[in-house]
Amino acid sequence: MPLSDHLRELRNRLAKAVFAILLCAIVAAFYYKDIAGLITKPITRSVGCPDNFHELTSKNADTCGQITMSGLMGPFTLMIKVSMVAGVVAASPVWLYQLWAFVSPGLHKHERRYSLSFVAAGVPLFVAGGWFSYHVLPAAAEVLLGFTPSGVTNLLPLNEIIDLVTRMIIVFGLSFELPLFLVMLNFSGILTGRRMLGWWRGMIMGVTVFAAFATPTVDPVSMLSLATPIVGLYFIAVIISILNDKRRRERAEAGPADDEASELDLTPEDVGAVEPVSAGPGLPEQSDGGRSAKLNGYDDIT
C-alpha cells in the first residue's frame, strides 16, 4: 500500500484501541474503590493499623502504617488514575489485536508463526511475574516498616502505594520476559545454548545488579525475590537452547528428507572464454556492429 494508506490504517487502529481503553476505563470508574482496594490489599493486609490504636500488639506495632489521602482533589485524581490503569489492562486484548493486525501483513508465514508462539509464551510469563510481585509485596512492606521507631506511626499515602504496586507488577512482569528473549535469539540462530551457558557467572551478577536498580523499593527481600526466579528462568532458557541446538545439528547431519529439495550450490564459477561460433550452412555471416556476438549466425534481434 502507499504510505498514505498505511498512515490511514494506523490512525484507524489507534482510534479503535483508544476507544476500547476509554470504554473500559469508564466502566472501571464505577468500581474504582474495589479496584483500588484490590491493588493495595497486599500492603494494607500486612502493615495496616487497626482503627483503635489500643488494639495494637507487640507483633504489629513496629510494622504499622496508616493509609492516608491528602488534598481536596486527591480522591478524584486517584479515581482517574485507577480507572485508566484498569482500562488499559481490561482492553489489552483489543489493542494487542489491533497492533498485531497492523504488523502481521508485513511478516512472512514462518515469521508470523514464530511471533504467535512467542506472544503465547510471553503473556503467561508476564502474568506470572505480576502475580509473584503481588505476593512478595507484603514481606517487603514488613521489612521496610520494621525500621520504624517505637511509638511512631507511618503515614502511607494511598496514591503512592498504588504507584508502587503498579511499578512492581510491571517490573516483575517485564523481567520475566528476559529468558524468552534469549530463546528467541537462539531460535533465530544468533546465540547458541553453549555460549549462553558460559555466561552463567556474569548473568547471575548482572541479574542481581539489575534487580537492585529495577525494584522500586530498596530492600533486599524485593531484590532477591526478583533475581532468584529470573536466574531460574535463565537456566531453563539455556536448557531449551541446548536442546534446540542439538535438534538443529542432528537435522543438518541427516541431510534433506525424501520429499525435501536439497540445497543448491549457487556459488559463481569462471567458465572461461567463449569462442565465437561460425554461421551454419545457409545462413550468412552477420556483423554485430558492436552490438552482439556472432552465435549460430543470429544476432540479438533475430
In a nutshell, what does this entry contain?
With 302 residues, this protein is mainly alpha-helical. It has a domain at 1-107 and 140-158.
Structural features, described:
Residues 256-268 have a biased composition (Acidic residues). It is found in: Cell membrane; Membrane. It is a multi-pass membrane protein. The chain crosses the membrane at residues 14-32, 78-102, 114-134, 164-185, 197-215, 221-243. This protein has 302 residues and is mainly α. The chain is 64% helix and 3% strand. The chain has ten helices and two strands. It has helices at 3-29, 32-47, 74-90, 92-103, 109-145, 158-175, 178-187, 193-198, 200-214, 220-254, and strands spanning 65-68, 154-157. It has a two-stranded parallel sheet. α2 (32-47) packs across α5 and α7 (178-187) runs parallel beside α10. The longest helix has 37 residues, at 109-145. Mean pLDDT is 76; it is low at 50-59.
Biggest sheet features: 2 strands, parallel
Count the beta strands.
2
Structural class: mainly alpha
End-to-end Cα distance: 40 Å
Detail the poorly predicted runs.
50-59
Total helices: the number is 10
SSE arrangement, N to C: HHEHHHEHHHHH
Approximately how much beta-strand content do the residues carry? Answer: under 5%
Q: Please, what is the average pLDDT? A: 76
Radius of gyration: 32 Å
**Dominant shape:** flat
User: Order of strands across the widest beta sheet?
Assistant: 1-2
Percent range for helical residues? Answer: 55-70%
